[in-house]
UniProtKB/TrEMBL annotation:
<comment type="pathway">
    <text>Pyrimidine metabolism; UMP biosynthesis via de novo pathway; UMP from orotate: step 1/2.</text>
</comment>
<dbReference type="InterPro" id="IPR000836">
    <property type="entry name" value="PRTase_dom"/>
</dbReference>
<keyword id="KW-0808">Transferase</keyword>
<comment type="similarity">
    <text>Belongs to the purine/pyrimidine phosphoribosyltransferase family. PyrE subfamily.</text>
</comment>
<dbReference type="InterPro" id="IPR023031">
    <property type="entry name" value="OPRT"/>
</dbReference>
<feature type="binding site">
    <location>
        <position position="144"/>
    </location>
    <ligand>
        <name>orotate</name>
    </ligand>
</feature>
<dbReference type="GO" id="GO:0000287">
    <property type="term" value="F:magnesium ion binding"/>
</dbReference>
<dbReference type="InterPro" id="IPR029057">
    <property type="entry name" value="PRTase-like"/>
</dbReference>
<keyword id="KW-0460">Magnesium</keyword>
<feature type="binding site">
    <location>
        <position position="116"/>
    </location>
    <ligand>
        <name>orotate</name>
    </ligand>
</feature>
<dbReference type="GO" id="GO:0006222">
    <property type="term" value="P:UMP biosynthetic process"/>
</dbReference>
<feature type="binding site" description="in other chain">
    <location>
        <begin position="112"/>
        <end position="120"/>
    </location>
    <ligand>
        <name>5-phospho-alpha-D-ribose 1-diphosphate</name>
    </ligand>
</feature>
<comment type="subunit">
    <text>Homodimer.</text>
</comment>
<dbReference type="GO" id="GO:0004588">
    <property type="term" value="F:orotate phosphoribosyltransferase activity"/>
</dbReference>
<protein>
    <recommendedName>
        <fullName>Orotate phosphoribosyltransferase</fullName>
        <ecNumber>2.4.2.10</ecNumber>
    </recommendedName>
</protein>
<feature type="binding site">
    <location>
        <position position="89"/>
    </location>
    <ligand>
        <name>5-phospho-alpha-D-ribose 1-diphosphate</name>
    </ligand>
</feature>
<dbReference type="Pfam" id="PF00156">
    <property type="entry name" value="Pribosyltran"/>
</dbReference>
């Protein structure tokens, strides 16, 4: 499957001037929610990612950060036949709520919709460690890190894209006066 074409077909690959949750600016944005609204595509995405994860890698639970990682965590957990939960921000810090728990020693796969700098996933990794869990890998639908090594553990993704990102003070779109749009769910300062 050509996933980038599917993103474009579903209107999930956006072009303009976007503020990413990392604080970086980009002329491209991947709105995975527009893909994940289709259960059949969500299931296929998760199965393809799960197939990339080594069969001998023990995973007890999949954790995704809210909001983008909730559906991904659920579908990936279903594909791997393990428990799936999500972390939420409370007072600016990732927390497990709603009765979710990670038991000491549990092997954890952290998943996201899109990884650029890995900020939210790394926050979830810290949370997992606080509970005594062990992060064994990361997963995402779209890896737009540009091949940077962000995590100590392996990262498994459906697709990898090299898309431009800019620090706000270096952004050519800002210099051109192109209006900035923040389509994500994270509140940035």
């Amino acid at each position: 499957m050509n996933w980038l074409e599917i993103f474009k077909e579903k209107g999930a690959f956006l072009e303009g001037h976007f503020l990413l949750s990392s604080g970086l600016h980009s002329p491209n944005y991947l709105q995975c929610a527009l893909i994940l609204q289709y259960p059949d595509l969500s299931e296929k995405i998760a199965k393809e990612i799960a197939e990339k994860i080594p069969k001998d890698l023990q995973i007890d639970v999949v954790v995704g950060p809210a909001l983008g990682g909730i559906i991904v965590a659920y579908e990936l957990a279903r594909a791997l036949k393990v428990r799936g939960i999500f972390a939420e921000r409370e007072e600016g810090k990732m927390k497990l709520r709603r009765g979710f728990n990670i038991n000491p020693g549990e092997k954890v796969l952290i998943c996201e919709d899109v990884v650029t700098t890995g900020g939210s996933a790394l926050e979830v990794a810290e949370l997992v460690k606080e509970y005594g869990g062990e992060v064994v890998a990361f997963a995402c639908i779209v890896d737009r890190s540009g091949g940077k090594k962000i995590f100590d553990e392996p990262l498994y993704s459906l697709i990898q894209l090299k898309l431009d990102t800019y620090k706000p003070e270096e952004c050519p779109l800002c210099k051109e006066g192109v209006p900035l749009v923040k389509p994500g769910s994270r509140n940035l300062k």
